[in-house]
Every structure is written in C-alpha cells, then in structure tokens.
Specification:
The structure is a single chain. With 244 residues, this protein is an alpha/beta fold. The chain is built from six helices and eleven strands. It has an eight-stranded mixed β-sheet with strand order 5-4-6-7-8-9-10-11. The chain has a three-stranded mixed β-sheet with strand order 1-3-2, covered by helices on one side.
C-alpha cells in the first residue's frame, strides 16, 4: 500500500477514534468516583443563597462533573430571579456556577411591599430576609384593578425612573418614594422631606443640579424650609418654600 494511502487511512482512523472518545469518554467518566461533585462555587449571587442556587439547578449529591450541564443551566435560567447562568467544571470534582440576577430597583405594595426590577417584574425576594434599601413606588388607585396586584405594565415607567436614579448615589441614598403625578413624576427626598417634581424622562445630571441648588437655597435662608424642587421647566430649578 502506498505511503500516501497509509497516511490517509491512519488519519481517518485517528479522527474516528477522537469522535468516539468525545462521544463515549465523558459518559464513562461519569461513573468514576474520582469525578464525583465534591464542591461547588457560585459567583454573581446577591439575593439567592448558595444552597438555593444548587437546589434550583437540580444538582444532586450523586452528580459528576462530567454530567451534561444543559438541564442544570436551563433550570437556573427559568428562575424569575436569574437572567443568565453558566456552569463549568474544575477537575477533578468541582462545579463553578456563574449567575446574573435581576436587579431590584424599588418596592411596590401588592399589598405587602415586594421588590420589582426595571421591567416592573415582581422578584421573589423577602425584604424581611434580604435587607433592601429601596424607594417605594406609589401607584394611583385604579378602581378597575381593585383587589388585584398592579401589573408590570403599570409599574414599569416608575421602575425605570428608579433605575436611572441609581446612577446618582447622592440622590438615591435619600430617595423615599416615587409616584406618577398629572404632569410628570413626584419624588419624596431627604429629611426633612422635600418634594421633587420632574418629567418622566429625567436625566441624572438634572437631579445633581437640583440637589446642588437645594443645598445653596438652604444655606442662603436659615428661616424658611424648602417645600418643593421643580425640574419641569427646561434648564431651570425652581425651589419653593413652605407657606409660599
């Protein structure tokens, strides 16, 4: 047999063996005690505990690092708190799980206070267990919705406003609640409380301007107490005082 043919035959044989190995070797390794899962690492969690992530994924005590991860990853991604999930093996016996959770941006009465994300989606986080320093979204009463929790669509506009406000830590730290008014948004801020009024599409830099103007107003007038800060006028910050 010519050398070229021999080389081609050896090449085909090698490819066949490699394909067989990829298909069958992991299956064989799953039965070896050396590769039993003896440890798990979880990255990216904030609201879920380590044990909850393992339970959600469905990783049993008899799992092997050579098991198929697809079902575990699917279970994680189907959970309402998890946006993304991936798993990798760290030989010989550890699984590394990476998750990205949905971020709570506010609390909404349903009727008890429950956290929601930027889409107005309710998140299964118990504020009594996980401390959440978040503003409260107050929705106007809707007789048609009496007795039912507010929908995500009703919550979403204010939830997205709350998310934008997170980019300004100074304002965010003292924000108490948000509500929709007839001509924009109203936010209760600070102690003593000041009512901020602004349009729905408020930019964070405008909030920084408003806080700065409010600070100057307080320093300049030790007698009167600011009542409202109005940002509904283009390029203006209007401070009104109690009793005026």
């Amino acid at each position: 047999m010519p050398r070229l043919e021999i080389r081609m035959l050896l090449g085909v044989t090698l490819v066949t063996l490699l394909a067989w190995g990829v298909t069958f070797v992991p299956s064989l390794l799953t039965h070896m005690a050396t590769f039993d899962v003896v440890g798990t690492e979880v990255e990216g969690r904030r609201y879920l505990t380590h044990a909850q992530v393992i339970q959600i994924a469905g990783i049993s005590d008899s799992a092997s690092v050579w098991d198929d991860f697809s079902d575990w990853e699917s279970h994680l991604q189907e959970h309402p708190l998890i946006l993304e999930a991936s798993i990798e093996r760290l030989l010989p016996g550890t699984l590394k799980i990476r998750i990205r959770e949905r971020e709570a941006v506010a609390l909404v009465a349903m009727p008890t206070l429950e956290p929601v994300d930027r889409e107005g989606r309710r998140l299964p986080v118990d504020p009594a267990v996980v401390p959440l320093d978040l503003p409260i979204i107050r929705l106007p009463e809707d007789p048609a919705q009496e007795g039912r929790p507010p929908s995500a669509a009703r919550i979403r506009p204010l939830a997205r406003v709350a998310e934008r406000m997170q980019s300004d830590p100074t304002f965010w730290a003292r924000l108490s609640d948000l509500t929709i008014a007839r001509d924009g948004i109203e936010a209760t801020w600070g102690d003593p409380a000041v009512l901020f009024r602004f349009p729905l599409e408020i930019e964070p830099y405008r909030l920084r301007e408003a806080v700065s103007v409010l600070g100057h107003a307080i320093a300049a007038d030790s007698v009167r107490t600011p009542r409202t800060v109005d940002l509904r006028y283009q390029d203006q910050v209007v401070v009104r005082y109690r009793g005026s």
